[in-house]
Structure formats: C-alpha cells, structure tokens
Amino acid sequence: MSTLVEGAVLSGIGVGRSAAVAPLALVRPAPRAPEHEPVGPDAADAVHAAFTHVAEGLAARAAAASGNLKEVLGATALMAKDRALIADAVKRVEAGTGPATAVTEAVAGYAAMFEAAGGYLAERVTDLNSVRDRVVARLLGAPEPGLSLTERSIVAAEDLSPADTAALDLDLVAGIVTELGGPTGHTAIIAGQLGIPCLVRVAGILDVAPGTPVAIDAAAGTATVDPGQEVRDAVEAIAAREAALASDTAPGATKDGHALPLLANIGSAADVPRALAAHAEGVGLFRTEVLFLDEATAPAVEDQARAYRAAIEALDGRKLVVRTLDAGADKPLAFATQPDEENPALGVRGFRLARTLPELVESQLLALGQVSTHSTWVMAPMIATPAEARDFASRARAAGATTVGVMVEVPAAALRADAILREVDFVSLGTNDLAQYTMATDRLRGELADLLDPWQPAVLDLVAATAAAGRRLGKPVGVCGESASDPVMALVLAGLGITSLSMSPGALASVRFALRHHTLAQCEAIAQAALAAGSPSDARVAALTHMDPEARATLGL
Ligand code: PEP
Ligand code: MG
To answer: Homologous superfamily of 9-23+146-180+197-243 in CATH?
Structure first.
C-alpha cells in the first residue's frame, strides 16, 4: 500500500510503479476556433497550407525521434496529410464555414468514427485532436500548443499527444499527469518507454495552480497536491526502490535457480529496444494485428515478411513468439473483421478467421516461413478445440514453422489442455481473454473489472489445469496475459508450473525481483494458498501472506 495520504489526493490510473515529486507545469491549452469566424477568399488555401505545415513539422520530429515515439509521430504526421480529412475541411470552408471551425468540425466527424470503432482506433483520437490543435493554432496565428520547461516538473495536461511529448525536454519531466487518456494510450506507452511515472484519468489536475508541488505515485494511482514531508519521503523511497529493482538484470529464476524466462509483449519491431532495455530475454507475444490496424486491405506477403524480419533481427537470436492475426472484437482490422456481428468477442476472431478468410492465415504463415529462424515460434489465438489446434499446427508446419503452439484463452481449451497440447509443441495462456470468457465479462467494460480479475478462483483453476497438463506432457506452458505482470501472481504462476512469463517491459523488474526472492517450494505454497481461497481478494491476500516479508516490503506490497 502507498503511504501518500497527506494533502489533497487526486486519483487516476497509474502507469508503471514509480513515483516523483516536483512542481506542476501545465501544458499550454490549444486555441479554439472563434465564434462567427469570418471566411476570407483564401480560406481554402490557408487550410491546405496549415495542414501541410503541421504534417511537415510532425514528420521532421518523427525523423529526429526513435523507437515507439518515432512511429507514433510518423502516424500522426500521416493523419495531418490525410486527403479525405483535408477535403472534408475544405468542403466546409467552401460552404461558408470559417477555416478553424471547418477543421474542428471535420476532425470531430473523424473522431466520432474512431470512437465508434472502439479499441485501438478510439485511442488514436488523441493524435487526431493534436493534429486539429496544431492546424487551428496555425490558422489563427496562435503559438503552437505545448509547453517549454525550465525546471524539473510534473507535466499536467488534458491529454498529451506524441507531438506534445516530442516537444518536451524529457530530462526535465519528473512525471506526467493527464485528465483524459487511457492506460494503453500513447501518453502511457511513451511514459512507460521512458520510465517516467505517469497517471492518466486524473480529474481536477488542471485546477491545480502551476508551480504547486505535486507528488505522484503510479502504483497507488494518486497525485498529492502540496505534499507534506512524510509523503515526500515516501515518494523518494519508492523512486529509490524502483531504481534498485531496475538494477537487477539477471535472467528470470527463483531463488533456488529454477529458470523461468521473462519475456516481453510487443506490437512491432519498434518495441524491441525498450524490451531489451528492460532485460527481457526475448518476446513471448508479438501481437501482429497491431501492425495492420491502419490498413484498409490485407497486407502483401512481402510487407508482412519485412515487418516480421525487422522484429527477428532486432531480437538478434533471442526467442520470438509470433501470434498470428487476432482480428475482431477489441482489435478490428478493416480487411478482416466481420462487419455485422452482434457479439464480436464471440464471433469470427483470432484463428476462426481461417473459416472466412483462409488466404489471410495462409499468407501470414507463408511470410513467417520466409523469415523465421530456429528461435521463432508461432502460435494462433482463440483456439477452442483440439481439432482447431491440429488444423493450425498442420498449416503452420506446412509453411515451414518448427515450433508451433496455440493460445489458451477460451475455457474449453483450458479444460481440454491435455488434448490440445498433444497437437502442438507449446501453449501460452492469454489470461486477459481467459478471464473475459470464463467470467462472461466484456474486457472493455471498466465497471465490471472485479469480475475480470485474474485472481477469480475459476480463472486460477483453469490456469492451474493448463499448467498441470503441460507438466504431464512435458511441454511448455507460458503466460502472456496482463496477469503475468503482477509480481504476486507471477509467484503463483511459477508455483503452478508455468514455464515462462511475458509482459509489458515496465513490469519485468518487479516480477524478476519477486521470483529471485522466493524458492520454487515457496512459490508452490503461495500457489496452493491462492487456489484454496474462495474469492479474488482472499486469493491475493493468501498469496501475499505466504510471501517473504522483506521482499514484500521492497516491492511496496
Ligand atoms: C490475452 O488475451 O491475454 C492476450 C494476451 O491476448 P490479447 O490481450 O492481445 O487479446
Ligand atoms: Mg487474447
């Protein structure tokens, strides 16, 4: 538990586990289009010129950036070049709307479309709005929205786009707090990449006067305004602890040397440097659908091969588990998603695509076959039956794959894990979907988070059953769902016989630390205590109670 209790405490969703205290700096708000904006004769040209200016500026920043930031800035620059968006704004100007108003309205139309699509697309609305803010500022002759820092600060904003972030001197950013945004949005991704403590969805942060000291604790999800000495000390202790955790870079193993490789989840080759910087031993989940979220048509085999080769090369011989396209539900792909499904999470998603678009599955396996090395493993998502596992394995092997597996994320697959494992070389538990399907709870519904909890006894039982099947058959059973990033759950998973853990890179240090401070026998006792509990909270408390007290204290648990 955090000790940040003094001062006014605002809450939000924390990204990572670190903490910081510094004066608050507010990002300059974007200018808004004035009411009754006049339309000059050159208004349409001005709109074109403003979009071009913004696109060029963003592209230049993308060229100077690296990693994820480069990719997101590049994607934002592309939005500023989008012909349909510009044409929409120009059409409005030609119909008599003022230029800044026309741009605002055109972007609002696109944002509504993205939001209706949900998932990743909805999270791109931040980028779209940042294009709008820059174009509108240009049209109004106002300074570009943003912030220039002169001292180490906690940066607060309504939302922070990649373009805003690129304009900041990151050495002076002690932490980031936003009123909007989501835990998987760009602000969170970039903060995670840079190891900066970050809170999103903090109502009221913009009402705090600039210059006021603010303490943020990402693990607790709190921002304390004008903190007392006790809170400052607690924050500094957390920051020191995080630095100490990050300095342990040994491979994943229990205290008595039982190896449990710690791997990273990635969405493209650009994520690999961050994973390696956090000392991941390889990649346990490459979500290939992320590469193609913006594509209107199925990517060509050569384009796919290039993207997979980039990840393989970046990993330089380390293990890479590539997941075939998991299109549908929360990850819609324009060229693969069924348009008229009433329950997309229960529809044609993941490997079920082989029923409607077999050529897509084949072309992906073909591309992978062209570039795979001995350390490339391939697995299919959303497998429900041994027959599906057999079908995928025979397609993948025919395309040249040497190590073939499937994800266990449907309860049917967990219940029949022995039969599934007989068809493949390994399985990987996707606990995000396994919780969704076991508890019949849409994973996008925040208000049902208590049901989606991976500590739910029924979910733990299915994980245990799958791990037991792996032990019986002597085949690897990994976990690549979010639950692997909880250091307490990681001990439970190790105790159940899980053979590797894959997570977001920011979680690696604390999971590594937890494992290295418990023997396998201790992990087994922790797992048994969790399995014996009757509710998610009892299960976690039971696991915590069996942990080494010193390790628990260092982890701030
Ligand atoms: C999961 O379901 O746990 C998983 C890892 O896959 P995704 O989150 O991409 O559906
Ligand atoms: Mg899944």
So the answer is: Phosphohistidine domain (3.50.30.10)
